[in-house]
Amino acid sequence: MSDIAFRSATELAAMIAKKEISARELLDHYLDRVDRYNEALNAIVVDVRDEARVAADKMDASPGDATFHGVPMTVKESYDIPGAPTTWGNPAWRDNIATEDAESIKKLRAAGVNVFGKTNVPISLADFQSYNEVYGTTNNPYDHSRIPGGSSGGSAAALAAGLTGLEIGSDIGGSIRNPAHFCGVFGHKPTYNLLWMRGHTPPGDIRSSSDISVIGPLARSAEDLDRALRIMAGPDDITARGMKLDLPEWQGRSLKGLKVAVWKNDEHAPVAREVEARVDLVAQALKDAGAIVNEDARPSFTAEHSNETYNNLLHATMAMRMPEEDYEGLKAIVDNLDPNDQSDNAKVRRAQVSSFKSWGANNEQRHHLRWSWHQFFNDYDILLTPMMATPAFEHDHRKFGERTILVDNQERPYFEQVFWAGLTGVAYLPSTVIPTGLNPDGLPIGVQIVSAEYNDLVTIGIAAELEREGFSFTPPPNYVD
Fold first, then answer.
1. What are the pLDDT digits (tens) for 132-186?
2. Angle 60-64-65 from CA coordinates, rounded to 5°
């Protein structure tokens, strides 16, 4: 039954509906794999299997036709589920026990999922790697010496290893997309504010949405992304009084005549030749299907300007998660900076404690970027880009300032990798990461499909078309029984 573990959530729900397997049998199948494989992988770090077994038995006693009826699911540790800790990997929040589900989890449960655990994250959801003092280090299922990505690293690793049927993550700097890339699964970063984030907030924050940050699904198929997004999408209770969701659909469209722009590398954040080659591979597949491909098309701004705007807004937002004592110490450091110091480190620190006036100026620049993208996507349907500079790299737990990555043997700054996430994230754009297969070292590489705001079902729909062309999930060999 090992192949069952790697099936899509849609296929698993169909098996239960056809009585080919019961919800309880499927849950126990995944739990058996968790017991055999998770100790070395350390992807699932919170276990609520007893509650899940009770829920599975109830589902079998009352069969339903919900989208994901009976599908076992894990969720990123940063989501609230009742009776379980929500720490964000922060030891200070070990005792933060949630009393109700996050809003998105409520919607998924109503659609039939059976939550049996939570998956690992970096501290404060602020790294490409997933390790912390609370839960330890998560490994990549294709090579345990390497990272699974972050901050939804446990999510992607659990999916790729066949330990769960569906996952949900969050993304401010690629935290859904880079784990999807590193672990060879599908991931979707939605249009900003398309999914209500209530219940995915630090302790004490009840309903506020963090700037840039979104929540969204990860899965082993594009169809699962589509179904999960439809379930979770929609305005909050206040906005719903006057607004309804009406997303553009992909169904009925064809790849023939699709207008595709390609941005496969950039001097501000160079990617490895093998990563660039995968963007070319996807572009060629679309061209072979009749799409019109343009490798020179760009929106009307410079990459440098977009990246600077993104980083200024990102650092201000991430600094909000700091303990007050640390934040006050950071302000004191900035007060003592030489006004002529324009080093990258000085720019980051100033952005972290920026005034509202400064933040507002960057926010204005962000909206200029949004309108530039809007005009661009009047001419092009989608944009293809890399997601990260390299395949999964080896664990590196040194201080941030000491880390670098090797891109074709060239040493590059560690956090330079947020460029490809920020290019689209700062402007609220939806993007779907698809797997493109394994490299000669057996490591996955993903490619990002981007489109205009609210074209979420378009990028996912094109991902589904490409999946049928062979850009599909490949299980890690050591996890196939």
1. 999 999 999 999 999 999 999 999 999 999 999 999 999 999 999 999 999 999 9
2. 140
* Distance between CA atoms of residues 153 and 77, nearest Å: 10
425-to-131, 190, 421, 446 alpha-carbon distances in Å: 24, 9, 6, 17
Q: Is 43 within 8 Å of 148 (Cβ atoms)?
A: yes
At residue 469's C-alpha, the angle toward residues 464 and 470, to 5°, is 95
Say which amino acid occupies 392.
Answer: A
Amino acid identity, position 349: R
5, amino acid identity: A
So what's the architecture of 2-256+383-479 in CATH? Alpha-Beta Complex (3.90)
Domain locations in the chain as residue ranges: 2-256+383-479, 303-366
DSSP letter string, 154-215: HHHHHHHTTS-S-EEEEESSSTTHHHHHHHT-EEEEPSTTSB--TT-S-TT--SPPPSS-EE
User: By CB neighbour count within 10 A (0-12 exposed, 13-18 middle, 19+ buried), where does 1 fall?
Assistant: exposed
pLDDT (tens digit per residue) in 408-430 = 999 999 999 999 999 999 999 99
pLDDT at 208 (0 to 100): 63
Task: List the one residue out of 195, 176, 251, 288 whose CA is nearest residue 461.
Answer: 251
The band of 335, judged by pLDDT with boundaries at 50, 70 and 90, is confident
Tokens of 372: 């530039």
CA 295 to chain centre: 26
- pTM of the model as a whole: 0.97
**β-pairing, 44-47 with 72-76?**
unpaired
Degrees to nearest 5, angle at CA 359 with 356 and 364:
120
At residue 274, the 3 state secondary structure works out as helix
Contact 175, 437 (CB under 8 A): no
Band the pLDDT of 225: cuts 50, 70, 90: very high
Environment class of residue 259 by beta-carbon count within 10 Å: exposed (0-12), middle (13-18) or buried (19+)?
A: middle
Q: Hey, which residues are catalytic here?
A: 76, 151, 175
